[in-house]
Amino acid sequence: MRSEVLNQTVEAVPDRLAIERIELRTVRLPLHEPFETSFGRIDSRLLFLVAVKGGGETGWGEVVAAEEPFYSYETVGTALHVIRDYLAPALLAEPVRDLSELAGRLAPFRGHNMAKAGLELAYMDLVARLKSQSLSQLIGGTRDRIPVGVSLGIQPTLDQLLERVDRYLGLGYQRIKLKIKPGWDIEVVKEVRRRHPDILLSVDANCAYTIADRDHLRQLDEFGLLMIEQPLEHDDLIDHAQLQSGIQTSICLDESITGIGRARQALELGSCRIINIKIGRVGGYSQALKIHDLCYSKGIPVWCGGMLESGIGRAHNIALASLPGFVLPGDISASSRYFARDLIVPEVTVSSDGTVAAPRGPGLGFDVNLDYITSRTETMMRLEPH
Ligand code: NPQ
Ligand code: MG
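That is the input. Now the predicted structure with N-acetyl naphthylalanine docked in place:
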């Protein structure tokens, strides 16, 4: 009996897994309300889903790139091109041994981390399903509930922001993050802090300042913020190190951390004291796990960032954030924070203690609602080995 079970497992996940087909879909979902950051504003999200088939199962991933190159140079369009013409052919060319072999196969193609991550995510969901393990189990997760916070966009008025702060605190969210930019920063933070003296509060500038704003940013020190996220340029480490040495508030880097090498350099230079890990930005699980392990070994807190993902990307974020080093609340909100209806069943919900549950079912641990996806699909492409 036991050997039969073992044999089945061995058969289900062969030493080398042949990928039989890759499907790429773009799916548009409207947002409940516009989301505005220092780099722009969106009303709907064009989601990019990746399905990878092999061994009789389907794994799901998501490319988190936006439609326009403001958060990063990648877009839905560049990712479609790079996956179709380079990454997918490499994945389909021969059976895959494991995650690191897959990562090595994608590594020669420079950059395009979100495109690479889309494939890694789908591959890992597929492997977890074939092994009848949850993604969290597969990567060594240790937590079954993930503390979460919410990211609040720049609002037309301060009153509208204050209403949203109250609303999300009321729903249990453990940390409020305010998007800031020059002209929407010190006074806004001051008023939120005045009304909520004890909450975990942070700000995210998405690169809106320069080192010349050092004295201006130092004014934030009096508000006891958990962190200032990515105040300076997207690819900078040096000016961030200089800024960090001159302010009390911890800097957290997001855009600047594009892989394990940059994480190591940022910590060596003192560019930040906290790291935001987004699986897409760093190129997938292979890099995200390395950055997690490095930070964990050094006692540097990490947390899981968000990219307005569908439930598919969201489920991957939950699995990642179940690792022991994710000690700060993630930007992993409920599906309903952004969308009237999500692509997965059940949707991601936040309980009143401000946590989301890491599911125990195989793979993502959620069902993918293909009918709803199909009804919202704008483009669909099938790729197979030739
Ligand atoms: C951040 N996310 O932490 C990002 C920024 C961001 C939840 O604050 C489309 C695609 C729109 C990706 C808007 C949050 C986006 C996006 C903002 C990412 O910096
Ligand atoms: Mg950010």
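Confidence is low (pLDDT under 50) at residues 1-10.
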